[in-house]
């Protein structure tokens, strides 16, 4: 079977060994002669999966016992609501850097005052807002570290005298960070972590229990912390896939992963900048290492370029419908060889 170069934005490419391990577990999970998707989530074999999937996150992030890890359902979109419901008592601060940040702001507003400290909506989100100050009297400050649709990324985070909340859905585990600076991190699994179907939440336990409103049982983080992500039936397959990916990440190390991601981004952006047919669509200083967005200067040739990509077995390059152009998503599992194939197509084009 010929290799397909998968630049899909999500669900996205996974390491081959992860896919193989998941396939094996579908047929025979942990020597039970049962499929992973038909065993009880309360079985000792699956409880061991959940325990390791939670502990490995803290190991990779170098976090202590003051943090907890839960796997939930509903995607990052549900986290837009849950973060505000659990943390927003009076007012919170947000930056508006793209579609998902905008949705997070919308979901938070019914729970209190939401101040938008910086927005790049004026130029269709092609840069990261800067030069704003986060005041200490906010309940929390929320940001989106990487904007998948628009190809921008926060390469640094502001000084935050209050709780720092971050949606890391599309760049989690892609680089070294001081994760202890964050009080709550959430991420949909389907980009850098595993199959679609579960959402990772990493949070400092001390930030909870401060709002006075009633919290529905399923939307209270403490429910899921107390039951170790087993209050309701978890997404057993997706979490197993996350565990396999976390093992792969842990074996490589974030330092190595970051170097590989930097090399891939440098290779592609270099071609975008020197090729007279193409132009990058994100501000150079804010370009994402995960999602490179670019366009042909002559848009009439878009289909021709996509046909050339298809002929080279390149998949998932078409830009988001709200932006157009092209988007090359270069998540952890994508090899630099695949990026080189794309660069070669651009050169020949």
List keywords for this structure.
9 helices, Aspartate Aminotransferase, domain 1, globular, Aspartate Aminotransferase, domain 2, 7-stranded mixed sheet
Walk me through this protein's architecture:
The chain is α/β, with parallel strands linked by helices. It has 9 helices and 14 strands. It has 2 domains: 16-252, 3-Layer(aba) Sandwich (Aspartate Aminotransferase, domain 2); 253-348, Aspartate Aminotransferase, domain 1, CATH 3.90.1150.10. The strands form 4 sheets. A 7-stranded mixed β-sheet has the order 2-10-9-8-5-3-4, sandwiched between helices. The chain has a 3-stranded antiparallel β-sheet with strand order 11-12-14, covered by helices on one side. A two-stranded parallel ribbon has the order 1-13. Helix 3 packs parallel to helix 4 (99-108). It starts with a strand and ends with a helix. The mean pLDDT is 97.
How would you concisely characterize the structure shown here?
With 349 residues, the protein is α/β, with parallel strands linked by helices. It has helices at 16-27, 44-61, 75-87, 99-108, 221-226, 236-252, 254-274, 302-311, 336-348, and strands spanning 5-6, 67-72, 91-96, 113-119, 140-144, 146-147, 152-153, 163-167, 184-188, 199-204, 278-280, 291-296, 314-315, 326-329. The strands form four sheets. It has a seven-stranded mixed sheet with strand order 2-10-9-8-5-3-4, sandwiched between helices. Strands 11-12-14 form a three-stranded antiparallel sheet, covered by helices on one side.
Radius of gyration: 21 Å
- Look up the CATH topology of the largest domain: Aspartate Aminotransferase, domain 2
Element-by-element helix/strand order: EHHEHEHEEEEEEEHHHEEHEEH
Distance between the termini: 26 Å
- Our estimate of the beta-strand percent is 15-25%
CATH superfamily of the largest domain: Type I PLP-dependent aspartate aminotransferase-like (Major domain)
Q: What's the structural domain tally?
A: 2
> So what's the overall shape?
globular
The appropriate CATH architecture of the largest domain is: 3-Layer(aba) Sandwich
Low-confidence stretches: none
Q: Sheet with the most strands?
A: 7 strands, mixed
